[in-house]
UniProtKB/TrEMBL annotation:
<protein>
    <recommendedName>
        <fullName>Metal-dependent hydrolase</fullName>
    </recommendedName>
</protein>
<feature type="transmembrane region" description="Helical">
    <location>
        <begin position="125"/>
        <end position="148"/>
    </location>
</feature>
<keyword id="KW-0472">Membrane</keyword>
<feature type="transmembrane region" description="Helical">
    <location>
        <begin position="155"/>
        <end position="173"/>
    </location>
</feature>
<dbReference type="InterPro" id="IPR007404">
    <property type="entry name" value="YdjM-like"/>
</dbReference>
<keyword id="KW-1133">Transmembrane helix</keyword>
<feature type="transmembrane region" description="Helical">
    <location>
        <begin position="93"/>
        <end position="113"/>
    </location>
</feature>
<dbReference type="InterPro" id="IPR053170">
    <property type="entry name" value="Transcription_regulator"/>
</dbReference>
<feature type="transmembrane region" description="Helical">
    <location>
        <begin position="23"/>
        <end position="43"/>
    </location>
</feature>
<keyword id="KW-0812">Transmembrane</keyword>
<feature type="transmembrane region" description="Helical">
    <location>
        <begin position="63"/>
        <end position="81"/>
    </location>
</feature>
<dbReference type="Pfam" id="PF04307">
    <property type="entry name" value="YdjM"/>
</dbReference>
Length: 339
């Protein structure tokens, strides 16, 4: 999730386990350590634009790396803060490790995919029960954590953890309801999907994007499970067929290898951008749940050298264009449709 959310949840756990006098110190160390795992974004290459995809939520997010991550945070922060506060190193290590431990678990709740069991498995786990940014999750936790530190009341941090747990549980309930709605949509169309994916849309767990796969196409829709149950019919797009869509692509080139890396990262949910034939998108991610306008893509070039990499592009401008439509769907007023 976003750095603030990771930080405040990282602060809440050590705060919740401490005596009153240490709540503020534990929160500061937990806050900084809770964000530390995302330093993997610094693993980049000037020549390989997909390297950061390979290593984001990789070893720094593995459960077996938690003691190492906690130790590295403690070594960095003890000299800066721990000694100034006259904390024993063991106490700094404890606070940092508890804060670091929350990061991977929380990230696994999103849809992006986290290598929880590296190096034993390269599988990316994604529960898809919360958005990467969700103010209704973050703000109550942040307020309770700040108050816990200011008032030296561990109980407030415990309430923050309870709120986080309840919200994620509600997200799991919504996930299952959205998945059931996606299956109903497919059945109503006479489709027998081989896979169904559902994920919350940006900033909420009320409106969900559903993607199901048939032999030739991906079908996307928006659903709003719960009390104000609504279906927002979307659109469909042809699955990527390299022989058909990219007949010029030599399988022995770097671009072909990059395409396979992107396919693995996207769990096979890849298609050719309908507006840019040389771009390949991850169908799961768009700002509107009814849309196949990808938030990111790779761009291939027919005239590129055999050792040339693809280009990685982001398309976040659609967020500015579609915010009003997204809100109307969250509010279930039915004003938004496919785009």
């Amino acid at each position: 999730m976003d750095p603030l959310t990771q930080g405040v949840l990282g602060a809440a756990l050590p705060q919740a386990t401490r005596r009153k006098v240490e709540v503020g110190l534990a929160g500061c160390l937990g806050f900084l350590s809770g964000m530390a795992a995302d330093l993997d974004v610094l693993i980049r290459s000037g020549t390989d634009p997909l390297l950061f995809l390979d290593y984001h939520r990789h070893f720094t997010h593995s459960l077996v790396f938690i003691p190492v991550g906690g130790l590295l945070c403690a070594l960095a922060l003890h000299g800066l803060l721990g000694r100034r506060w006259r904390l024993p190193f063991a106490r700094t290590l404890l606070f940092c490790t508890l804060g670091y431990a929350t990061h991977a678990v929380l990230d696994a709740g999103t849809s992006y995919g986290t290598m929880l069991f590296w190096p034993f498995s390269d599988e990316r786990y994604a529960l898809s029960i919360v958005s990467v940014v969700d103010p209704l999750f973050t703000l109550p936790v942040a307020v309770l954590v700040v108050l816990a530190g200011l008032r030296r009341r561990p109980m407030l941090a415990r309430l923050a953890l309870v709120w986080a747990g309840l919200y994620l549980t509600l997200g799991a309930v919504q996930h299952q309801a959205a998945r059931a709605m996606a299956a109903e949509i497919a059945a109503a169309r006479g489709h027998q999907p081989s896979r169904i994916e559902v994920k919350p849309t940006f900033g909420n767990i009320l409106l969900w994007k559903t993607v199901y796969e048939t032999p030739e196409r991906f079908h996307v829709d928006g659903v709003r499970p719960g009390v104000l149950r609504r279906v927002f019919p979307g659109t469909s797009i042809a699955r990527l067929d390299r022989a058909r869509d990219l007949p010029w692509l030599d399988p022995d080139t770097q671009q072909a290898r990059d395409l396979e890396r992107f396919r693995r990262f996207s769990d096979g949910f890849v298609a050719r951008d309908p507006d840019h034939p040389d771009r390949i998108i991850d169908v799961r991610y768009s700002f509107l749940p009814t849309s196949v306008r990808g938030l990111w893509s790779i761009e291939l070039s027919p005239g590129a050298a055999p050792d040339a990499h693809v280009r990685y592009r982001t398309h976040r401008e659609q967020a500015r264009d579609s915010l009003g439509r997204l809100w109307s769907m969250i509010a279930a007023d039915g004003l938004a449709g496919p785009q």
